[in-house]
Each structure stands twice: as C-alpha cells, then as structure tokens.
Amino acid sequence: MRMKYQFAFFDEGSKREIRRATLKAVAIPGYQVPFASREMPIARGWGTGGLQLTLSLVGKDDRLKVIDQGSDESVNAVNIKELIGKTTGIAITEETGEATLIQSRHRIPEIPLHAGQILVLQVPLPEPLRYFEPSEYETKKLHAEQEYSGAWLMLFEQIMKYGHMSTGADHPVLVHKRYVMAPSPIPRFDNSKLNDSEALILLGAGREKKIYAVPPHTEVVSLDFEDFPFVVEPFQGVSCRLCGARGVYMDEVHDEETGETLYQCNDTSYCLQRLNEKRG
C-alpha cells in the first residue's frame, strides 16, 4: 500500500505554528523562540530543527540545496533531499546561486548568498550560555538582563589556558548589538558571512525546540578582546589541489605516498563550479 503525504510532509496547522515562531525570530534578531518541535522520520540530532523550518517554508516554485559539512553528497544531505523531494516534488540543485532555499549543517556556502535566498542552519545546541549555566531559567534571565560576562569569561579562560581563543567552531556572536547567539557549529571562517548578509538566515534546533534568526543586513560581530582579536582558521598561502582556489575554507588531505599535506575546498559544489569554468 502506497502512503500519500501532505505537501511538505506537515499538516497546515503545524506549518503555521512553525512560521509564527519564525516570524517572531526574524523580528527579534538573535533571540531564541521556543516552538513545538514535531516528531520527524529522522532521529533528533540529525537536523530535525532545520528540516522543520525547511518543510514549513518550502513552496512549489522553490529550488532546494542541502549540504552537510560542505558536501552535497553526504548521507545526511542525501536523505534530507530525498525526503523533501518525495513530499514536495520541487527542484533539487547543487548550485548555490540557483537555490532559493538552502539547508546546511556546519557550513555557509562559499558563493555569497543574495537577496531572496533563505539559508537554514541545523543547530544541535542553540544556547551559547549553556557551557557555564545549566539552568534554562537562569540563561533566560541572563539574556533578558544582557548579562554576558560568563561568555566573555569562557573566552578569557581559553586565552589563559591555551594562549588563544580555542573555539574551533560555534564561536559566539553578538547580534544587532543585543543578543549573544550561537551561530551553530560553523567554523570561525564562516562567522563573517553572517554579518550584513543579503539572505535571510534561520537557525533551528529540533531537540532543544528553539528557532532563531539573522535577518538580512543585520550586524553580527564575533566576541573578542581588543588585545586578542577574533581570528579565523589560517589558510594563507595555500590553494585547493583540485581547482586552485584561495581564500576559502579548506580540508586537509594527507598524501600517504609523499607524506605531504595538501588542501582541498570544503565546499564541493564551489570546487566543481570552478573546475567546470576552467574546462570551459
């Protein structure tokens, strides 16, 4: 027996509830809006928050792109594309510039996003203060009072222990000069892409039941100190072994024969586009 699903899997009531929470998140940049996270046909922790946002927003004329840590072909990305494709019938693309709706885990695409696009980021831990305050009640109070000394202290302790801020990813940011926000586990390299973005950026945490947003052209600043400024991963002087790109986020590739460390674009579709352009 073949089962029939509603367009985009959810019933209309569920979509409206998620959209209402999304509108509130857009109206208050960086603020975590609670929502009634639904049961999904994938396990919590595998992108259910981002998937719920995507399913509540997708329309019949949208073009969808899904990436996981820079790859369009990872297990997570392929399964999410298959679910959305089978329940909507919309076009799926790997071209960042063509997509109207992009769902991503751990990366923001290298090709700059443009007006009219929506980027949905999957979030495992939306609360940037959870590292030092376990109580949800207390973190809400801290946000309300704009009391973020704990976040600064966390970074200061990293400097004292390691000589530098050791956040490899999910480095906290200040949004619209008001809320400290977890940008999801994107690398530090991608933090600057949140600032003054032309696209709408939505972040969803299914397990934690939170939605928050960075509207277009919003100021987003990574937390740092005057004498210890925020720095990104160092890729100076290296280029992609495949397409020759510079100034993008790279993966290290170890050549077992020569013992040499090589670099390759983490964003696979960006790398492929450059290769196709070179081939004419």
Folded structure, characterized:
- This protein has 2 domains: 12-222, Rossmann fold, CATH 3.40.50.11310; 234-280, no CATH class.
- It contains 6 helices and 12 strands.
- It has helices at residues 12-27, 48-57, 75-88, 136-144, 149-162, 268-279; strands at residues 33-34, 63-68, 91-92, 101-105, 118-122, 173-175, 179-181, 200-205, 210-214, 220-222, 250-254, 261-265.
- Helix 1 packs across helix 2.
- The protein starts with 11 loop residues before the first helix and ends with a helix.
- The mean pLDDT is 94.
List the helices and strands and how they pair.
Elements: H1 12-27, E1 33-34, H2 48-57, E2 63-68, H3 75-88, E3 91-92, E4 101-105, E5 118-122, H4 136-144, H5 149-162, E6 173-175, E7 179-181, E8 200-205, E9 210-214, E10 220-222, E11 250-254, E12 261-265, H6 268-279
Parallel strand pairs: 2-3, 2-4, 4-5, 5-8
Antiparallel strand pairs: 1-9, 6-7, 6-10, 8-9, 11-12
Helix pairs in contact: 1-2
Can you tell me the CATH topology of the largest domain? Rossmann fold
- What structural class do you assign from the helix and strand content? alpha/beta
Mean pLDDT value:
94
So what's the CATH class of the largest domain?
Alpha Beta
What percent of the residues sit in helical stretches (DSSP H or I)? 25-40%
Radius of gyration: 19 Å
Number of domains: 2
Overall shape: it is globular
Number of strands: 12
Q: Give helix and strand order, one letter per element, not per position.
A: HEHEHEEEHHEEEEEEEH
Distance, first to last CA: 48 Å
The number of helical elements comes to 6
